[in-house]
Every structure is written in C-alpha cells, then in structure tokens.
Amino acid sequence: MTQLYRDIDHAYRLRLCDTERSCIGARLAGIGVHYDHVPLPAVVFDEESRPDEIIGSYIEPLDRLMASMPRVALDVASVSISHPRRETIERELMVEHAHDAVESQVMVHGAGVLFMRTADTVFALSCEPGDYVRVPPGLRHWFRMDSSRSFRTIRFFENEARPRLSHRGEDMRGLFELVGDGLRETPGQSI
C-alpha cells in the first residue's frame, strides 16, 4: 500500500500521515512533487529482459504520462538481488542528492521508500508498482529499497536530457524512523 510519512518533531521520526492517494498527491504538490498512481498491466519479466521489451509492455500508461511532457527519452533502472553491483547501488541510492532538472519515474516492480527533504520538512513516500513521482530540480531526496532488495522503474528524461547532480550530501542509511500503522523501523536498523 502506498503510504506517506512526515516528520513530527525534527528528531528523525516520520509518522504516517496519509494512505489515500489523492491526499498524498495534494500534500506532495505543496513541495513541488507530482504524485500519481497509474494502473499497470500485470507483466512478468526476468532479469535478462531488455529495456525496450519492458517499455513496450507498458506503452499505454507511459503514453498517458508523457502526453503533458516535452520531448521525452525513457530508460529502465533495474536492480535485483543477484545484481553484481546491488550493494554499491543500494548505498548510492541512500545518499541524499538533488538534480539540476526534473527527475520522473514510475515504479513497475518491487517497492521502496522515497525520502524527500525541504528546508524544514522530510517526507517519506512508500512506493509500489504504478506509483509515478516527478521530483522538481533542487529537491533533496534519497531512496531505500524494500526488504526484497530489488526494484525496476521506468525513468523519464524531459527534453531527452539526463539530470545531473546539483547536490550530493550524506549517507542517510538508518537515520529516519518510520512510525504508524503497525510499521516501525528504527534508526540504526540494517536497511
């Protein structure tokens, strides 16, 4: 289930604040993030599937998402438990960073938590397949894979340009605790 958490006391604890997708979208719009959930066809791929096969299988929902964007290039980001660089990629994803351009993607397999930090608030969006997130330039964020340690997203590059890092911060592993609705993850826990 898609869930949104928000900091409650500036003490590295994020409390569940919403599970209703339309409310999640409205809350994230307040920090310039576009969130939507798009129905995806049930498709199963193996680790050897080519990006064009994956993109082609989701072309209808992708076309709907791209309709309001300038020229777009697509690619597939995929990490599996057997990926030879999984641990390195996982560490890189957990480093707070920002880009100089819009970063958009739709989760098509797996799950994880996208953390987003403004000057005074931290949000954590627990993502599942079908969740589309468009992060504005300059917004600091990081991503934690779920316990399966695998995910696949389709990324959108507007004007066919890959965003470049405009900020690279600290490793955020284990700093934030998500609390609420039976979920409790503590700082220092291996994530």
Notes on the structure:
The two termini are 19 Å apart. The strands form three sheets. A seven-stranded mixed beta sheet has the order 10-7-8-1-2-13-14. Strands 3-9-6-11-4 form a five-stranded antiparallel beta sheet. Strands 5-12 form a two-stranded antiparallel sheet. It has helices spanning 21-29, 51-57, 59-66, 86-93; strands at residues 3-7, 13-18, 34-37, 72-79, 95-99, 103-110, 112-117, 122-127, 131-135, 140-145, 151-158, 165-171, 177-180, 183-185. The protein contains four helices and 14 strands. It has 191 residues and is an alpha+beta fold. Helices cover 17% and strands 42% of the residues. It has one domain (3-185): Jelly Rolls, CATH 2.60.120. Residues 182-191 have low confidence and may be disordered.
The CATH topology corresponds to Jelly Rolls
Task: Give the CATH level 1 class.
Answer: Mainly Beta
Strand content: 35-45%
- Sheet having the most strands: 7 strands, mixed
The total of beta strands comes to: 14
Low-confidence stretches: 182-191
Instruction: Classify the secondary structure makeup into a structural class.
Output: alpha+beta
- Could you tell me the radius of gyration in angstroms? 16 Å
**Count of individual helical segments:** 4
Query: CATH-wise, what's the superfamily?
Result: Jelly Rolls
Total domains: 1
Listing every helix as H and every strand as E from the N terminus to the C terminus, the arrangement reads EEHEHHEHEEEEEEEEEE
Strand order of the largest sheet: 10-7-8-1-2-13-14
For the record, give the distance between the C-alpha atoms at the N and C termini, rounded to a whole number.
19 Å
| Percent in helix | 10-25%
If you average the pLDDT, what whole number results? 85
Per CATH, which architecture?
A: Sandwich
Protein name: 12-dihydroxy-3-keto-5-methylthiopentene dioxygenase protein
Keywords: Dioxygenase, Oxidoreductase
InterPro entries: ARD (IPR004313), RmlC-like_jellyroll (IPR014710), RmlC_Cupin_sf (IPR011051)
GO molecular function, one term: acireductone dioxygenase [iron(II)-requiring] activity
